[in-house]
Hints:
Number of helices: 3
Shape: elongated
Radius of gyration: 24 Å
Order of helices and strands: HHEEEEEEEH
Largest sheet: 4 strands, antiparallel
Distance between the termini: 68 Å
Amino acid sequence: MRNFDLTPLYRASVGFDRLADVMDRALSADVTTTTYPPYNIEKTGEDAYRISIAVAGFAADDLNVEVRDGAVIVSARKPETEDDGRTYLHRGIATRAFERKFALADHVRVEGASHADGMLHIDLVREIPEALKPRRIEIAKSAAVGKLAS
Length: 150
């Protein structure tokens, strides 16, 4: 595996610590990371996104969605219950506990979450503050400039 030194990025920029951390996490990601549960990330609008996670076998009360340290963390734990005398010949619906973490970009907030038909949907929206939006600066014509030219 390759190791990348991100020191020049820290040396030549201010405020990009989070970007460097994301790159560092991505480059050092464990190859054996589980793919359970499967999920989709889709863009639903100009500044809107949706994370959809397949959570078959989990009720809404078994799921937990929280925002912490610039990330959405989804976890689930199925309460231990008796199988009511059931004997499974094949048990293919996994209801094992999991935790899945999604890093959020700056100014992205969770708008809400819903659970339907075995899917957990988390809606996200990017809200750029007015101070960071591009704005046109009018150039004032000064009387002093006219006097210097004459």
